[in-house]
Design brief:
Radius of gyration: 12 Å
Number of helices: 2
Number of domains: 1
Largest sheet: 5 strands, mixed
Strand order of the largest sheet: 2-1-5-3-4
Order of helices and strands: EEHHEEE
Number of strands: 5
CATH architecture: Roll
Strand content: 15-25%
Distance between the termini: 36 Å
CATH superfamily: Beta-grasp domain
């Protein structure tokens, strides 16, 4: 499946905006991405295995917070990082 990578995380993917990954859940997709691009998963998921508050994952434009959420090979996953400032 295609996974869209936000600009702040592209240093892990050799500046690729879209990469291929596989898995039957959001967590498995992140695990696959981490195997290809070490360190990427830790930027999205914390030490307790929860999605970091400033990270958002969308499956086919629908927000997902549960890493156990199922995905299909035809789905498109988008990782987004919330921006903050003042």
């Amino acid at each position: 499946m295609k996974v869209r990578i936000p600009t702040p995380l592209r240093s892990y993917t050799d500046q690729q905006k879209v990469v291929e990954a596989s898995g039957e859940s959001v967590g498995a997709v992140l695990d696959d991405l981490d195997g290809q691009f070490p360190g990427l998963r830790f930027r999205v998921v914390d030490e307790q295995g929860r999605m970091r508050p400033h990270m958002k994952v969308f499956v086919n434009q629908e927000a997902v917070r549960d890493l156990r959420e199922g995905v299909a090979a035809s789905d498109e996953v988008t990782i987004m990082q919330a921006l903050s400032g003042g």
